[in-house]
Amino acid sequence: MVFYLNELSVFGHGPETAKMLQGSTPHDQLLIQISDSFAGLLLFAVGFLLFMVSFVKDRDFQSFFAKGCIILHIFMALWRIYFERRLEDLARDWPRQLVGDIVLSLSWLFFLVYSWREKYD
């Protein structure tokens, strides 16, 4: 993802917006690259955490983790509603990303409903 960042930006946002998102000064470009690196590190950490949690057999912990993921996706949706829609460069992308956050939180909610069904059957 880091090696083809420009191509991913062009694919996701279009060529004009991708050029604006790269930054206009070397300082801005460095800050954006550092931010992208931290985002990649966060994605790796979340994936590794999900991998570790998948081996836990405790249902209470699994439901606790699912509730935390639901809250995280709700906060991400609120962030997109209140802040990202105000950025004119990203204004056309936030509804699609908002739908993605809602779908991901619903997937965790369905996991909770399924685990409650198994627990009370």
From TrEMBL:
Identification of the protein by name: DUF7865 domain-containing protein
Record key words, sorted: Membrane, Transmembrane, Transmembrane helix
Residue ranges constituting the DUF7865 domain according to the UniProt record: 1-109
Keyword Zinc included in the entry's annotation: no
InterPro entries, alphabetized: DUF7865 (IPR057187)
Pfam family for this entry, one: DUF7865
Organism: Platanthera zijinensis
Transmembrane segments: 30-52, 64-82, 94-116
